[in-house]
Amino acid sequence: MLSLNDTPFQPATLQLTGIPGMQRGHAWVALIFCILYLISIIGNLSILTLVVREPALHQPMYYFLSMLSLNDLGVSFSTLPTVLATFCFNYRHVGFDACLVQMFFIHTFSFMESGILLAMSFDRFVAICDPLRYATVLTNSRILAMGLGITLKSVMFMAPLPILLRQLPYCHVNVLSHSYCLHSDLIQLPCADTKLNNILGLSIVLATFGLDSLLIVVSYVLILYTVLGIASGEGRRKALNTCVSHICAVLLYYVPMIAVSVMHRAAKHASPLVHTLMSSIYLFVPPVINPIIYSVKTKPIRQGIFNLFSFKRKWL
Questions:
Q1: Greatest CA separation for the chain
Q2: Residues 6 or more apart from 164 whose CB is under 8 A from it?
Q3: Within a domain: residue 284?
Q4: What is the model's pLDDT at position 264?
Q5: Considering the domain boundaries, does residue 4 fall inside one?
Q6: Domain that holds residue 39
Q7: What is the pLDDT of residues 10-24, one digit of tens each?
Q8: Percent of the chain, pLDDT > 90?
Q9: Residues 110-159: tens digit of each pLDDT
Q10: Residues pairing with 13 in the sheet
């Protein structure tokens, strides 16, 4: 609702916010973020390089892993400009249109990650439940089609949100709660009815995260049923061991996301620091930890990284 003193307009810039209560420690926060970005970029680029260079890794499982690494790079690069500007240069303003673009890419890559994790669970399902047809089901053309489908679906679902936000009138409040632009943050700023935006946003979340997570659970129920039918204990252990990295990636992605969603709805009056930290964990931790998990738990990746660094040492 507009008050008598409010005149609707579209702000030229929006004001970003650092971490509440840590203004004096922004130098240390900037250092932490720089380290996280560095680990994420180096780790995910290393996995992409290995998958491209090593013929032994030209398999469906590693193609999906390279999609995940490429997507994690997209998440990191989407947040990097405003986060470093806020904490390293104390520049707290972002153009309204630039903020909408950043919001579009952050959420699009987030939707894509959910779809990629679902595709990876399908890969594990076929590998364990129907191994004889694995090579014929997951052909290169089908993997490419799945990747393009995930991308197209994410872009189509996300595209209406910034368009609708741009049509709304805004009042004099233009301060965001984070050092990056999120839909849940921007939707609080208009001084008009945002019911349509909220309904559309909720529908998109249910159609992506809700459906994807449900199908991932179903796939693992079927995987577990198949594994329990294996007579050999060693066989059961080996089958489950191929799923550990993916399960860790799923938990690393969905647990913080669910926590952020619950915090926004059930703990609105909690400290702003808590909301900021939870959102930061959701966006920054998976791109950093995913390559570490797969490097530690996946022997071909671990061996490939060892060979890569051994090769570099020989030339030094």
A1: 75
A2: 196, 197, 200
A3: yes
A4: 64
A5: no
A6: 13-315
A7: 778 899 988 776 666
A8: 50
A9: 999 999 999 999 999 999 999 999 999 999 999 999 999 999 999 999 99
A10: 95
Query: Measured between alpha carbons, how far is 74 from 151 in angstroms, rounded to an integer?
Result: 12
Measured distance CA(154)–CA(125) in Å, rounded: 23
Q: Does some domain include residue 170?
A: yes
| Residue 277 belongs to domain with CATH number | 1.20.1070.10
User: Could you say which DSSP state residue 95 is in?
Assistant: E
Q: Left if phi > 0, otherwise alpha if psi is -120 to 50, otherwise beta: which for 310? A: alpha
Number of domains observed in the structure of the chain? 1
Cβ–Cβ under 8 Å, residues 176 and 79: no
Measure the CA angle with vertex 150, ends 289 and 203; round to 5°: 95
The residue assigned the tokens 């609105």 is 268
Of all helices (H) and strands (E), which one includes residue 250? helix 244-266
For tokens 């179903």, name the residue. 218
189-217: pLDDT as tens digits: 888 888 888 888 888 888 899 999 999 99
Q: Residue 130 has which token pair?
A: 């129907």
What's 190's DSSP letter? B
Classify the phi-psi angles of 21: left when phi > 0, otherwise alpha if psi is within -120 to 50, otherwise beta. Answer: left
Q: Which pLDDT belongs to residue 117? A: 96
Give whichever of 86-100, 109-123, 245-259 has the largest mean pLDDT: 109-123
5 located within any domain: no
